[in-house]
Specification:
The chain is of the alpha+beta class. A five-stranded antiparallel β-sheet has the order 3-6-1-16-10, with no helix packed on it. Strands 13-12-11-9-14 form a five-stranded antiparallel β-sheet. Strands 4-5-2-15 form a four-stranded antiparallel β-sheet, with no helix packed on it. Helix 3 packs antiparallel against helix 4. The termini are close together.
Length: 281
């Protein structure tokens, strides 16, 4: 088990004062199997009253509005979380059992439908056919897909944008974790495996000394269903473990964007983001 402190700062700088803004943040983890949240709070500047709820996907959402003119909106999420690897059970569904179960479950049915962000191109469709025709259990096929995509793509910022699709990223064979997760989701769904996008944090250096802050990441990975949800990080070709902190999940990035909102004021704004992760034991 590891104890991690995450400080996630984000917000907007405006060209001219914004007269009002209405926002929702999905930046705070919650306790679930594999992690226990000891602290989680959100600081907003300019100060604003917060309202919290769990959305359709059970992600923790904080909503707030700023009704005074401001040139800077800053949101800082600070969390302390105990994280441990979750052992997987030996019993999994076979392909026929999974196919029979999906129509009976709304949550599974929603996770086999492609979105505009995950829809695969012709080459990815061929990859799906090859992966499925090779035999293997659901977990073996899913893991093979994630590894194939992770090995084929290079992590590179600046190549794609927040609205880029799996097709865009696959064509470039590069992108950030969001893009690699979208590509993997598209192929997993194409072979009939329910799969969802996970938003969270990653401690990038497990060898860092206790108490030393390191530049971390707002991270994304995937989960697929084979009788239970199994997570995998295709960007880093790694199982989900003590370096990953779970915030929420959805069909794609748009369901769990860390910060989104609307504002009245200037046409130009600049997003800023930083994540700092510290191992506490």
């Amino acid at each position: 088990m590891s104890r991690l402190r995450i400080v996630h700062r984000t917000g907007y700088r405006y060209e001219q004062p914004a007269t009002a803004s209405y926002n929702e943040a999905r930046m705070l983890p919650y306790s679930r199997e594999g992690q226990f949240v000891l602290q989680a709070n959100l600081e907003i500047s300019p100060p604003a009253t917060q309202h919290s709820y769990a959305d359709y996907w059970d992600t923790r959402v904080s909503t707030f509005e700023v009704l005074t003119p401001h040139r800077l909106l800053s949101v800082t999420a600070t969390s302390v979380v105990d994280v441990r690897a979750v052992p997987q059970t030996a019993r999994t569904l076979d392909w026929d059992e999974l196919a029979a179960l999906i129509p009976k479950s709304l949550s599974l049915s929603e996770c086999v439908v492609q979105t505009p962000a995950t829809a695969p191109d012709e080459e990815l469709l061929e990859l799906a056919v090859t992966a499925r025709s090779g035999g293997g259990t659901i977990d073996e096929v899913a893991l093979g897909i994630c590894r194939t995509i992770g090995e084929a793509m290079e992590y590179q910022s600046g190549v794609t944008g927040v609205n880029s699709t799996a097709r865009d990223a696959w064509h470039a064979r590069s992108g950030v974790c969001q893009d690699i997760a979208h590509v993997a989701l598209g192929v997993l769904r194409e072979v009939g495996i329910p799969a969802r996008y996970v938003s969270g944090y990653l401690h990038p250096d497990p060898t860092a000394p206790v108490g030393q802050p390191v530049i971390g990441e707002s991270h994304a990975w995937v989960e697929w269903y084979s009788g239970e949800w199994h997570g995998y990080d295709p960007t880093n070709l790694a199982e989900i473990g003590e370096s990953h902190v779970y915030v929420g999940h959805g069909r794609d990035y748009s369901d769990v964007a860390p910060l989104r909102g609307v504002y009245a004021g200037p046409s130009m704004s600049e997003l800023f983001v930083s994540v700092e992760v510290t191992r506490l034991d």
